[in-house]
Amino acid sequence: MDSALYNDLLQKGRFITNYKPVLNRRAIFSDYSEDYIIPLEPNAYGVVTIKLRSIRNNIDYAKLVCNGETFLMELTETIGEFDFYSVSYRLSNELIHYHFEVGNGGTRCFYDVRGVVKDPNDYFDFRIRPGFKTPDWAKGAVIYQIYTDRFYNGDPTNDVLTDEYRYIGENVTHVDDWNKYPAYMGVREFYGGDLEGVMQKLDYLQDLGIDAIYFNPLFVSPSNHKYDIQDYDYIDPHFGKIVDDKGDLLTDGKSENKDATRYINRVSNYANLEASNKFFASFVKEAHKRGIKVIIDGVFNHCGSFNKWMDRERIYENQEGYEKGAYVDKNSPYHDFFRFFDENKWPYNGTYDGWWGHDTLPKLNYEGSRELRDYVLRIAKKWVSPPYNVDGWRLDVAADLGHSPEYNHQFWKDFRRAVKEANPNAIIIAEHYGDPSGWLAGDEWDTIMNYDAFMEPVTWFLTGMQKHSDDFRQDLLGNADAFEGMMRDAVYRFMAPTLFTTMNELSNHDHSRFLTRTNHVVGRVADKGYEAANQGVNKAVMREAVVMQMTWAGAPTIYYGDEAGVCGFTDPDNRRSYPWGNEDKELIRFHKEIIRIHKENRELITGAGIILHKDYNVLAYGRFIKNNEIIVIVNNNDCDKEIEMRVWHTGIPRESTITRLMLTDAEGFTTEPEEIPVVNGSIKITLSKTSAVVLKGRQDDGKNADKESETKHVSPLQKLEFLLH
């Protein structure tokens, strides 16, 4: 810098406003958040205001490049040290994609979802779909996933009985010891958990602070996982109510389900079915009274061989009020619901198409039957409508439905219309691995189970483990660059409505428990045994992960029992029973506190996000909206770490203090506040091993706006420094 200009600045104690320092790239910012897209979910044919931020008096111009057209942005607001440039854009009903161009003197750069770049690439543009909205309640909602059979047995009279029926070659069994580990081939084991049990534990869930329950499938089904649906119209009486209980078990040498009259009566008797649906409606009503939403699982790609449309087990063959199944009779009204490879095998034709070759999972043939499509769309409406009033669907293997990509997309468009017409506030969440962007354009799914942009990156970074515990990668453990890259590459496929509702899980029914991943044991229960999943686990790493889960953009989703210290390798060991009476009460208390922090700070719901600092086993990021900032720092090293990092680009004033809301480390956790000074836009903090800290900048109380503009406590030299910092 010219020395005369520098001396003049020091002597006069003010800025020379026409001087433009070098371009401050760190200050340039925009993203999918409520301060930068206004409104966040604009209507079709409405107007959206798009904003870009820079350091004060630092750029000559900002331009919005939208759908190939360029619009000059206007400096519309200056808050503290930041200038905000805006442009209002008239929408049609078509997708728009955009990035920014910024100029300073002879310097020009671009800004897209990757940040500041030299050359723009449409692939990384921000995107807005006019009219694409997701329910406000689902944004940042704390969801609790329940695998019903393993949660709590509230009504022993509806328990599956030993020898009640036969499933995959063997009779089913009732487990008398609630704490028994699931058998390796335990799909025939039933612990007795039911909806009455969840009803009895609603006080616990409400006290924990959850906003929604996501249930694994509840419909009539012969397995404990219930992903082989038998009847989509009814809640399984083994989860609901059995009011008429008669018939025989499969004893005395009987081995065919057509003789399992106790089971047949329980699941086909309309008195039991209607009573179960009525009880479920009362459950949802009680949950809603407590402010808890209910999401159910929709398994529409395939059904089960027990399904009344197929009836391979001949359960419905002679029951009053039921048509013949497609397996039983070639003239069944359900014949076209399935594909048969041999049309000359009736009666009892087993040559149908099974999903991935499984004859227990008949693939549904939507292209061959308009009646099937209409039936499932009626089911989609039924459960989100009165008297059930469910708040959303989770869709199993959603990308597999149908026999072609074209039909798959058409079906989900039809499904969305059906659901949203019946209940506009219902959420549609799809199970999906890989690029979901083709389904997330605003006319099919709302969001996804977030494997690629949450579960996997967090697991690799904190544990080095693959999500099934099938591999350990030393090169990914603590690799903050890899973490950021995975997150960025996955998140750019989202738009704002999806981003803030995406289901962020650490564990679920398909993968090993996160707590088990912290022990770095590669394997499954078949080769390692049950106890190996419990040994050497690190609860401090688990707490780090939960801090990230509750502060990252999306809907944090707790798999039942994770909060209580449940371990387990992948399916079926991940489906251990909830340890009532043996819970890790300290871990539960930690979950309650971090959930409270999540819900009390709006920037964690729809705020902006930015990576602030990276190092080996160290990650720091900020979430912020106007006058509200959260800083999260994770030190996953096995030693203390002194960290000095900039925080000013979240909006935190350069000379201020921030307050610690949560600290977790190897010794436990605390919510005792502690003040940390911000000096020239940076903080210095020492974190102990395997720790995470949540720091709060300002709380918007209407008193901060004027303070931001005050400069009397900042020297001219400091001002010069942070223009260049």
Summarize the structure.
With 725 residues, this protein is α+β, with helices and mostly antiparallel strands. It is 23% helix and 22% strand. Among the domains are: 16-131, Immunoglobulin-like (Sandwich), CATH 2.60.40; 306-353, no CATH class; 450-600, Glycosidases (TIM Barrel, Alpha-Beta Barrel), CATH 3.20.20; 610-700, Immunoglobulin-like (Sandwich).
CATH architecture title of the domain at 450-600: Alpha-Beta Barrel
CATH class of the domain at 450-600: Alpha Beta
Helix content: 10-25%
Radius of gyration: 28 Å
- Low-confidence sequence ranges: 1-7, 9-17, 701-725
Helix/strand structural class: alpha+beta
- How are the strands ordered across the major sheet? 22-21-20-19-16-11-24-23
CATH domain fold name of the domain at 450-600: TIM Barrel
Strand proportion, as a percent range, falls in: 15-25%
CATH superfamily of the domain at 450-600: Glycosidases
Number of helices: 17
Ends: how far apart? 14 Å
